[in-house]
Structures are given as structure tokens and as C-alpha cells.
């Protein structure tokens, strides 16, 4: 099967394509060919030594009880305070706020659900508004509607905040996404141009360029008019629009298994929508040609990252700070959640960092912001998304614990 | 699948305990009673020491606790389907999942009851398949399992067949597609050799 062919059904749920009569026609050798496959994340893993034991951090299927959350481990700059905003939200990932203050929360492999958290004077209620979804990581709230993106389609729940107890049947917006599992889960936003921005990750750790993958696209809100925004993007699970000029900034996860310290994840800015190639699979972090696909390629032919965010760091959700609560120095700065690496023996990140744009398309400096969740080379928590609330405080989701923290500032 | 009256009674008891008792009381009981509740609810099918003598029913002895809780969760969530387990897990609280998983994780590894004589040729073919499919890369070099990945060495052959066929057909899913993808590379007749090989592996100590 050609990987470029649009696939209606994701492989995860596929009953075997080859069955019955075709099966009898197949020689045994055909099976042997397919069978060399390891799980996609394990391709290229070292065959011996400590590296051979690395694997994704398994997700515990029960959220951590509120009184056992690592809230007292969290470190912040002076004047900031972290508190548990909501708990018991299994696999809490993406965060979006509705017009009426509902916070929508997405999830991924473990839960497959979309939640809505409502606040009644400090008492919060968590409702599951959709379940049994296929890796529904991508959500966006826009003009009363909740958009939900899976690896294969994007649907819309209209007037959702008025019907949390009885959500409407979703309307199909776009059903032509490839549906691949590897890097198929989404992060979606509606941009200042009123278009829906959608990434399509590489269907592998590292593989040759394939039409329709490793890019960010945008479309009209009804799914029409698809166009490319950025090419050569391996897997972005976080982006936002610069409040100064509307340009798109995105985080990107670097390839696995090259080495403990290379390549870095990156933060990037799109200065020429539709025209830039960010290097994957030929060139990583702006200056490092891939040992397999980089021969004959020059890293200077590709768009350079604005910031390197650490090897295998799992750099995910990001947001420009536009609130009024934090000190003035954070105005217009970018907060970025780093999930923390699984494919690195020395764990780090598992934090939120803050980076300041230099006004010329780059980053002037960055600092750790919310830290303390890595202990004894293991994660106490793993931040996924950050969201600035209407009151200027910031929510941080933690899928490891199934919790959402609120960070506020009081001088 | 047969479903003994003792288990049904156990399930009923479980429901009664988790719904009728006041929360504080239920929690206090939860901390201490899961070994007894395992004996009442699980043992009839899975064996008092976790070695199953019941056709098509897995042994739990030596399974990692993380694997046990993950499967209980998938049963409860309706994502792994099995008549009896779906019914039992549906009534479990988070504390129940933790409690049962801890008890299961503490059952020492033990050899299967009456596994039958190994067929040397099928074992050899199964062994080659296990290499080809990288089974032991995740399941451990002695198929002993770790964390969310189950022990498969010395598991009941009939159960292994059900599990592998389920993954292959896409009717059994985990969080990720790893097993479905692995089984996409195997012919139906090969699954039988693979199950035969795994069932006859010596039962290794837990990691």
C-alpha cells in the first residue's frame, strides 16, 4: 500500500487488509517481508547497551489523586504560585478556553476523550463530552464551536458551551487527513486570518519525503481551500500566532535515536507562509545533516530554527503571553511546555520554559519557568500544553498525572 | 467462555461492597482486603495462585502490576472486550483497579498446569517467528514482561492464540498499535506456532 494514498481507516483499527482469498494467493515470503517491522518509535534504536532499553514512558491509566499531585515540587520565579486547578482528568493534554469560561481538555492514547471543565465559584466540574475517539489530541474553540482533530478527520461541535450535558452530533469539517498513527495526532488553531491550521506529521521517526506529510497546512473553516503553510516539519504539537504581526511560530520534535544529545527540538517562525522548508528529513536543528538522508544536502538551503529547545525534549504546547497578570517583562514572551524525553537515558525538561522574541524573527533569550518535576531521572509530571486564561493566569496540563495546574502572579 | 457461579457471586459481592458501603468505610476496606477479594472474585477462573486451569483464561501469576491495571482499565473502559471481565471491571473504582493490580503483581511467577508436550518442530518455527517479529524486544529477553508489557512465556497456549488473533483482527487494541502492527506480519498458521513456542518457554523470574 502506498503511504501517500489517503487512508480512510487508521491502521490502528484496521482489520487486516489482506484476508480470505487474497491470503491464500500470497506466498509465505510476502509475510516475512512485512514482518521485519518494529514499532515505529523503535526503528533506529541502538541494538545494545543502555540505549537499547529506551522506550516511551508508559502512561498510568488512573489519574493521580488530588492530594498526591507533585504541586509542592513545582518551582517558579519569585511571586508566582502554582495550585491544582483540576485533577482526575485522565491523560489531560490540549487546553482551550470557551467564550463562557469552559476549559476544554483533549487527550491521546490512554483516554481518547474530550473533557469540559466548568468553574462555579472555585468549585470545578469535569464532564466528558466525547469519548472513544481516535487519538483526539487536537482541539480548538472558535465562535462558539469546539473543533476536534484526530489523525484522520476534523469535526465541529456547535454551540458547545450551551450543551455540555448533551453535546450535539459533530459536524464533519474535513475527512481527508491520512490517518497514520505515527505523529498523526494533531494540534490545531484558528489563525488571525480565520483559517484552521493543521499539522500532518511525518509517518515515521525518519523516512524519505512523502507527499502530504511532514508539513503544516491551513484551510477554510469549512475544510475547503487547503494550502501549505510550512514544509519539512517532522512533528509539531504546539503553535501560536505572534500578537505583534500575526506570524506563525511552532515547536517541532526532532528525530529520535541519532544520539543522546542530537538533534535538538526546535522553536521556529514562519516568515513566508507556504514557501519555507524547515529541513526534515534532510537537515535537523538548522545545522546538522541527517546521517542517512542528508547526503548532498546543505543545511543553509532550509529555514533555520529560532531556538533549540533540547535533545528529544518533547517540546509541545506554546503560547504568547498577552495577559495582564504577569510582570511586564513577560508581555509578548512565549511560554513553551516540554514533556521531557523518553528516548534519552538522562531525563530532563518536564517543564515550562519562557522565550523572548528579539523582534527580528529570532529569540533573544530564554529561561526555565516552571520546573521541579524531574527527580531521580524520572518524571513526577509531564507538561503538555499551556494556556493563558482570561484573567491572565496560566493553565498547564500534565498528562502523566491527569491534572491541570494554575500559575498565578501576585507581587 | 465458562463463567463459574463462584465468580458471579464474587462479582455481585463486589458490586454490593463498592456501592453500598459509605465511602470512608469502603476505602478502609480497600486498603486491606484485595487479597481476599482476589480469592473471591478472580481465583475461580484465574487460579488461587494466578495459574489458570480454565480453558481460554490467562494465568496472572508473574504479570507486572502495571500490565494488570492497564488491562483492568481497558476492560472497564469498554476498549478490551471479554464478557466476564467487562462485566466485573465495569463496577470497579480507581481504588479497586489499584488494589487488584497490586495483588496480581505480587503473585509469584509459576509454571503452567499441564501445558502438554512441546512439538520440537513447532517450537523451532515459533522461535524463529518470535525473532522475526521482535517479540522479546518489548516482552523481555525471557518473555517475563515488564511494566505495561505482559509476561508471555509459559502463558496458556489457548489464551495466547485468542490474544494474538484478536490483535491481528484489530478486535483487541491497546493504547498503541504496536501489537496490531506486529501481527500484520504473520500468517494465521504461523500464529499457532508462535503461541505454541511462547507457551512452552520456561517461566523466568520477574525482573
Structural commentary:
The complex is a heterodimer of chains A (411) and B (207). Chain A has 411 residues and is mainly beta. Chain A contains two helices and 28 strands. A four-stranded antiparallel β-sheet of chain A has the order 1-28-27-26, with no helix packed on it. Chain A is globular and about 60 Å long. Chain A starts with 19 loop residues before the first helix and ends with a strand. The N terminus of chain A is likely disordered. Chain B is mainly α. Chain B has two domains: 102 residues, Cytochrome c-like domain (Cytochrome Bc1 Complex, Chain D, domain 2, Orthogonal Bundle); 80 residues, Cytochrome Bc1 Complex, Chain D, domain 2 (Orthogonal Bundle), CATH 1.10.760.10. The N terminus of chain B is likely disordered. The interface between A and B is medium-sized, with 31 and 35 residues.
Report the β-strand fraction of chain A as a percent range.
25-35%
Q: Count of DSSP helices of chain B?
A: 10
Distance between the termini of chain B: 32 Å
Structurally, the number of domains of chain B stands at: 2
Distance, first to last CA of chain A: 60 Å
DSSP strand count of chain A = 28
CATH fold type of the largest domain in chain B: Cytochrome Bc1 Complex, Chain D, domain 2
Task: Tell me how many strands of chain B there are.
Answer: 0
Total helical segments of chain A: 2
Q: Mind summarizing the main beta sheet of chain A?
A: 4 strands, antiparallel
Provide the gyration radius of chain A in Å.
21 Å
Radius of gyration based on Cα positions of chain B: 17 Å
Q: Give the oligomer, counting copies of the same chain as homo and different chains as hetero.
A: heterodimer
Assign an overall shape of chain B. Answer: globular
Largest protein interface, residues of each chain:
A-B, 31 and 35 residues
Report the helical percentage of chain B. Answer: 55-70%
Indicate the low-confidence ranges of chain B by residue numbers: 1-25
Q: Determine the mean pLDDT of chain A.
A: 90
The ordered string of helix (H) and strand (E) elements of chain B is HHHHHHHHHH
